[in-house]
Amino acid sequence: MGMYLNSKAPYEMHRKIMQSPYFIDKSLLLTELIPAFGGINCYCCITRPRRFGKTVMANMIGAFFGKTDRDDRIFDNLAISGQPEYKLHLNRHDVIYIDFSRAPKNCKNYAQYIARIEDGIVEDLIAAYTGCGVCKEDSVWDALQKIYEQTENKFLFVLDEWDAVFHMSFISEEDRREYLSFLKWLFKDQPYVEFAYMTGVLPIAKYSSGSELNMFVEYDMATSEKFSEYFGFSDAEVDSLYEIYQKRTAFPKLSREELRIWYDGYYTVTGLRLYNPRSVVLALTDNQLRNYWTSSGPYDELFYYIRHNIEDVRDDLVLMVSGERISADIGQFSAAAMEINSREQIYSAMIVYGLLTYECGKVLIPNKELMDKFNELILSKDSLGYVYNLARKSEQMLQATIAGDTKVMEGILQLAHDTESPILSYNNEVELSAIINLCYLSARNMYRVEREDRAGKGFVDFIFYPKHKKGDCIILELKVDSSPEEAIDQIRNKNYALRFRGKLGEETPYTGRILAVGISYSKKTKEHSCKVEALD
Fold first, then answer.
1. What is the pLDDT along the chain (536 residues), one digit of tens a residue?
2. Would you say 202 and 213 are in contact if contact means Cβ atoms under 8 Å apart?
3. Domains of the chain (ranges plus CATH)?
4. Which of 248-278 are b and which e, b meaning 16 or more Cβ less than 10 Å from the residue's Cβ?
5. Cβ burial, residue 247 (10 Å; 0-12/13-18/19+)
6. Which residues partner with 218 through β-bridges?
7. What is the rounded (10 degree) CA torsion for 350, 352, 357, 362?
8. Long-range contacts of residues 487-492, Cβ cutoff 8 Å, at least 24 apart
9. Phi-psi map region of 202: left, alpha, beta (phi>0 left; psi -120 to 50 alpha)
10. Is 83 exposed, middle or buried (0-12, 13-18, 19+ CB in 10 A)?
11. 227 φ, ψ to 5°?
12. What is the distance, to the nearest Å, from the Cα of residue 1 to the centroid of all Cα atoms in its chain?
């Protein structure tokens, strides 16, 4: 047992995860890895956005395969225990586990960083294989080769956060190349490698067809079908967790639908919808909906990617914040692609980091958790031009709506024509609704805003659910080349207000006024008209 070789850490961390009331058994991943052991394709790299269970899976792999002196048999009640491979592989392998996000104390350069890893592994090998002639001066690969030559023992490698060095401030471009060479020397064509499992956010850097790490088979969320079900939570898995939550929480505050709105919306290439697992577990544990995932890392990178090409992506942002999907050709964003020069590269990078999701050739903001972050971006970055200016008016727009001040409402909408942006051509209600959404951006602090929500006898363009029961409810209908009166008539005739009035025999969920808001736009005059009425 050592710091790297057959470390107790993965076992202990996985045991803790299993003790959580919101644990999901993903142990069948192990059965999909085992067939590759000892073969030519024994190098596997799985990349996922942050907080999608990568380290949880890495710990499980290390805990299951690594030799240990523990006897509590933590895997006996998991799905893997019913498989024929179970007893053949449980704690039968020499596992070298490396967490590349860790650095030595007061680390100031790459030499110190990598020396900690190399020296630590060699020290563990000297302690475990005393008769094999391994010495401190050996490189890791030479030490492993010596052991293999004398014992024919092979090693299973688990590499967590392989891409951490690409985000460390003291690492230079030359250091990154040296790091990739280190991984190449450690793994490529080495007979002592039984299996290598690598995980992180960034796909492997591809410099050429002769890449340092081209022995690894890569599996990402956007383009690879295999392993899709093991990272993130499915609808069925969240259903089971929600049942546990209801049973063990004295006063449950969360609805199942709210969990979907906040944390669902990521897509695999197979079309499987996934929830962010960390956020779901924390929301259920805390009995509170809030932004967990985006507070877990340096999300200035969101604007970092956007600011590289504001002109190309600014109008797309307006549509995406409005809930629309944007067509885009997505290529692979790799660790080497630190220069971003196009709209497609921006979106590829944002998909890799989990800031956007991708389905059927289109990118979109996956859920409310990320939508809030985009709203924050729009409200705080004046370099976004008209987008920022309109968003900053959104609080005034909401107050004018509640007060029925249609002149102020129309004046704010007219600001849309201070720019020549194509989004403001208003060729249809999609573009108009994008601008309306922007003008009511700050309303999301007081309301849950839904687009095209079912209400009464149809679907309403916008519906504002107040977070407080006594708040004013808002139903907003849009018209192009028509009148706001016609929009109000539609709200009345289709009885959209039923959405706020509850079911027969139930307590009315909202007690404030129900406001019908009609907004129209004339392509000919380029003017907006507004009308606000309180419904009976």
1. 789 999 999 999 999 999 999 999 999 999 999 999 999 999 999 999 888 999 999 999 999 999 987 777 899 999 999 999 999 999 999 999 999 999 999 999 999 999 999 999 999 999 999 989 999 999 999 999 999 999 999 999 999 999 999 889 899 989 998 999 999 999 999 999 999 999 999 888 654 344 788 899 999 888 889 999 999 999 999 999 999 999 999 999 999 999 999 999 999 888 889 999 999 999 999 999 998 876 555 455 666 667 666 667 877 888 888 888 888 887 666 555 556 667 888 888 888 888 899 888 899 999 999 998 888 888 887 777 778 888 888 889 999 999 999 999 999 988 876 664 555 565 667 778 888 888 898 888 899 888 876 665 667 889 999 988 889 999 999 998 999 999 999 999 999 988 887 644 445 678 899 999 999 988 888 889 999 999 97
2. no
3. 9-219 (3.40.50), 235-295 (no CATH), 385-536 (3.40.1350)
4. eeeeeebeeeebbbbbbbbbbeeeebbbbbb
5. exposed
6. 45
7. 80
8. 487/517, 487/518, 487/519, 487/520, 487/531, 488/516, 488/518, 488/531, 488/533, 491/460, 491/516, 491/518, 491/535, 492/516, 492/535
9. beta
10. middle
11. 75, 10
12. 35
- Looking at the chain, the number of H-run helices and the number of E-run strands are 20, 15
CA neighbours closer than 13 Å in the CB half-sphere of residue 424? 18
Left, alpha or beta for 37 (phi > 0: left; psi -120 to 50: alpha)? beta
Residue 159: which residues within 8 A CB-CB, separation 6 or more?
58, 98, 100, 196, 197, 198, 199
CB-CB contact of 435 with 390 (8 Å): yes
State if pTM tops 0.85: yes
